[in-house]
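User: Could you check the structure of this?
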Amino acid sequence: MSEVDVIYEDNHLLVVNKPTKLATMGAAGQPTLHGLGCDYIRRTRNKPGKVYLGIVSRLDSMTSGVIVLARTSKAASRLTPQFANHSGDGAQKTYLAAVSGRVEQQQGELVDDVYKDETAHRMRVAHHAKADAKEARLEYRVMGHHNDSTLLRVTPLTGRKHQIRLQWSEAGFPILGDQKYGSERVWPNGIALHSWRLSIIHPTAKERMAFEAPVPEAWKNRLGSSLFT
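Assistant: Sure, the predicted structure tokens are below.
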């Protein structure tokens, strides 16, 4: 990949549709979204020198979808708190997830205490009191079923690392293709988790803006296009 798929840009924001298998930043020797975004700004804004592009939130490398980057340090300083605030003035995220099995309850909430297992490089659910565990909460709605899979619309209410992946695995419905968290079924590219919609308060205009990343074609081919109409 050598280009970024831009959803929206202005002098303060760069909003892109991140593909799977691309780290947001920090992947030594490999392309990153941050690096490609800087290259894009240099080329389109004729800035041959050093380019500022602030990371205010991340997506796992195996997850696709909408993500916002800050084009100025002022924008970064105003956006970062929004991603730590999951109440009214915070960033609002909606994901699509395809999980193994049929989730019969049409809507609900998952709540777990989670912690980071440094040795295994993954998150885990704490089944007993644990000092470093933190609450993870999400809401969901079933959008449909395809054979023995369920398409979900998921809204995280906290911002724990890997929480959607972990919580659905813990519930017995691992995300398709997510071998780290128990999936035994393959997915065409990456895992079946897509950052579908993102809403933020613009850092200077102070107005709420919403962005959407189209569902990857592989999802429609695998699950049937009727689930996305």
